[in-house]
Design goal:
Shape: elongated
Radius of gyration: 25 Å
CATH topology of the largest domain: Immunoglobulin-like
Strand content: 35-45%
Helix content: under 10%
Largest sheet: 7 strands, mixed
Order of helices and strands: EHEEEEEEEEEEHEEEEEE
Number of helices: 2
CATH architecture of the largest domain: Sandwich
Number of strands: 17
CATH superfamily of the largest domain: Reeler domain
CATH class of the largest domain: Mainly Beta
Distance between the termini: 28 Å
């Protein structure tokens, strides 16, 4: 599910410094995160005083390799992200954005930066922003999704529409945020539904769904057996391998990008 939140800040006395009083971006010039993400500092409206009746909008569009806009991400995949700022009365545009987990930590990384886009670091957080204003307010980058189990990812963006009047009056700011849920590969669902290992007085039988390793441990953590399994093969672990009492059986697939471990 994609959650979209927008906030329009029309008054000059709200917030703090400039996103584009320095053309190179506020992360590079001031070492500040003004994206609106948790832990960021005040936004851009103090130094960019908006005029009455402005129509600035910012938008984040995330697309997969086939050009489809997504509401969830598949772990490990790359996505094309457009950070868009529009205003019919503006002469140029700027932005600052980031992608984070719920705890505020970086959600993987950005690369393949588009025209006038740079990647900065502010107190360990990755920030993409303008390296110089663009006449057309479309800034792009590739985002690499995190690995399996990372959970939801939120994108935060501060967009600016400016008049290039060599000052800050008459500019406008608009903030937006979207959230992508973590998708699940069909193969992960499938391995999650397969039957449990069969245990009887002779030992443990496991039918391998894919290549991987089958580990059998006693409840105190002692490894009693470890067997490599080929996809489609049946593995038998006899009780002679110290298999007695309560045991933990864990299957770890070779390809963790497409299959989840099962215990």
């Amino acid at each position: 599910m994609k959650l979209k939140i927008t906030a329009f800040l029309p008054f000059a006395f709200i917030a703090s410094f400039s996103l584009m009083s320095h053309h190179n971006g506020v992360a590079e010039e001031q070492n500040k995160d003004r994206t609106g993400a948790p832990g960021s500092v005040q936004s851009c409206t103090h130094c960019h005083s908006p005029v009455i009746g402005v129509n600035t909008l910012s938008n984040i569009v995330i697309m997969d390799s086939e050009g489809n806009e997504v509401e969830e991400y598949m772990p490990g995949n790359d996505y094309f992200v457009s950070f868009i700022v529009t205003d019919d009365n503006a002469e140029a545009f700027g932005f600052q954005a980031t992608a984070v987990h719920s705890d505020g930590s970086n959600a993987r990384s950005f690369s393949n930066l588009g025209t006038n886009v740079q990647l900065e670091d502010v107190d360990g957080r990755h920030i993409v922003e303008q390296s110089d204003p663009l006449v057309i307010g479309i800034f792009t980058a590739t985002w690499s999704a995190p690995t399996i189990g990372a959970g939801d990812v939120a994108f935060y963006m501060a967009g600016l529409a400016v008049n290039l009047a060599h000052g800050n009056n008459g500019d406008s700011h608009h903030a937006t945020a979207i959230s992508l849920t973590e998708g699940i590969h069909e193969s992960v669902i499938e391995i999650g539904r397969i039957s449990n290992p069969i245990a009887d007085s002779d030992g443990i039988v496991w039918n391998a769904h894919t290549n991987g390793r089958l580990n059998v441990c006693s409840i105190d953590g002692k490894l009693n057996s470890s067997n490599f399994c080929l996809s489609g093969a049946t593995v038998f672990v006899p009780t002679s391998n110290n298999i007695e009492g309560l045991q933990l059986v864990q299957f770890i697939p070779t390809n963790l990008d497409q299959f989840a471990p099962k215990t």
